[in-house]
Amino acid sequence: MLSEYGHISRRNFLKAIAVLGLSSCAPFYPRTRFIHLLTNDPHPDHYNPILDALIDLILPFGHPNFPSITPLSVRNNIKRHFPLTEERQEPLQRAFIIFNDIQLFPNKLPALVDQEVMLFEEFEELNTAEIEPKINEFLELDQHLFEQFETKFGTHGTFLKAPKSVRAAYFSLWGQSSFSIRRMFYNSTKGLINACAYNQKEMWDAIGYEGHFNAKGLR
User: Fold this and answer.
1) Which residues pair with 158 in a beta bridge?
2) How many other β-carbons are positioned within 10 Å of the β-carbon of residue 199?
């Protein structure tokens, strides 16, 4: 069973991928090599490597005291709580593909903008004239982040093909983004992966945790 934090991360993750996977992002893709994947259901071979790379990035597999679990075992745990191939998971599949394309980060993605507009309207009760400059400011801030990233690491096409140090910096951009859905994807992905790692008995043994109940049957 996932912890309450794991369940929260899962809910946030589902919300983030639902927004990121909206077809309204599709107009940006004719100039990328992913048009075929976005007009067809991506195969697990397309998105599982991205998930595995995130798992490898987030968990300290290289630490000498880290237990003998693998990215595959963590991914299987995630699939158990959120089956990636269940029915038609196009939003999830497309969200990973959008994340994978590093060069999309500075672009004005309609799905991200629409979500942010909705939040401004709902929680700050702003009107269109008040929201537009804020959205433009968010875009400029994210573009500035991306310029700093490329100044330091150079130009890279995809998360999967980038060196691990670049992957870490790019993933961090999502956590620093002005757009709430990107930050939610960053935080909930970390939370979900950690929850699904600590859900394994090998992790319990490593930290001296005896399970859901102690010897006396008490929590």
Assistant:
1) 101
2) 18
Question: Quick one: CA dihedral 205, 208, 213, 214, positive or negative?
Answer: positive
Of 24, 34, 147, which is closest to residue 97 (Cα–Cα)?
34
CB within 8 Å of 71: residues ≥ 6 apart: 52, 55, 56, 59, 61
Cα–Cα dist 162/153, whole Å: 10
Nearest to 78 by CA among 188, 196, 187: 196
- CB distance 144 to 155 below 8 Å: no
- Distance between CA atoms of 14 and 184, rounded to whole angstroms? 10
Using an 8 Å Cβ cutoff, are 81 and 2 in contact?
A: yes
Q: Which of 139, 193, 146 is nearest to 169 (CA)?
A: 146
Q: Note the pLDDT tens digit of each residue in 30-86.
A: 444 444 444 456 677 888 899 999 999 999 998 888 998 999 999 998 888 776 655
d(CA 191, CA 199): 12
